[in-house]
Amino acid sequence: MLVKLINYFVAMINKKILEIRKKLDKLDNKLLDLIRLRTELVKKILSNKRYKKDIVDKKRIRIILKNISKKSKKKGVDKIVTKKIWYGMIRAFIDYEYRNFKKKN
Questions:
Q1: Please, are residues 85 and 78 in contact by the beta-carbon 8 Å criterion?
Q2: Which of 50, 56, 79, 98 fits 72 for a cystine, CB–CB 3.0-4.6 Å?
Q3: Residue 9 maps to a domain
Q4: Do 83 and 68 form a contact (C-beta atoms < 8 A)?
Q5: Contact by Cβ (8 Å): 54, 103
Q6: What is the DSSP string of 55-78?
Q7: Dihedral angle at the C-alpha atoms of 97, 99, 104, 105, nearest 10 degrees?
Q8: Is the Cβ–Cβ distance between 101 and 52 less than 8 Å?
Q9: Would you say residue 105 lies in a domain?
């Protein structure tokens, strides 16, 4: 009887986890849509850069990370998590820009 009861609770916990993971999957799909839109904007910015040296704007990166930190605190979101996410995203898009840069005449 005890084993059946334990198995029941394990199954209930697993069901809850699966439900939550489905919600995470839906959220991930929305994030992918946002990343696609962000990529389109980055492409537009890149098309206006004349030189590779224009790709990295350290001052802008500092401002973005500072603003994200402030907004995270205001919204009750872990600042370390958001800083790592934004820093990683910025690095990924810098890499994207280097890979897709075409020199202007």
A1: no
A2: 79
A3: yes
A4: yes
A5: no
A6: S--HHHHHHHHHHHHHHHHHHT--
A7: 160
A8: yes
A9: no
What's the mean pLDDT when you consider all of the chain?
A: 92
State the residue range of the domain holding 12. Answer: 2-100
Total count of domains within the chain: 1
CA atoms of 72 and 80, how far apart (whole Å): 9
- Whole-model pTM: value is 0.81
Of the CA atoms within 13 Å of residue 1, those in its CB half-sphere come to 0
Task: Give the C-alpha separation, 84 to 59, whole Å.
Answer: 18
CATH of the domain at 91: 1.20.59
Q: How many CB atoms lie within 10 A of CB 68?
A: 18
For residue 50, being part of any structural domain is answered with: yes
Contact 65, 86 (CB under 8 A): yes
Whether 2 shows a pLDDT value over 70: the answer reads no
92 falls within a domain: yes
For the segment 10-14, the average pLDDT, to the nearest whole number, is 75
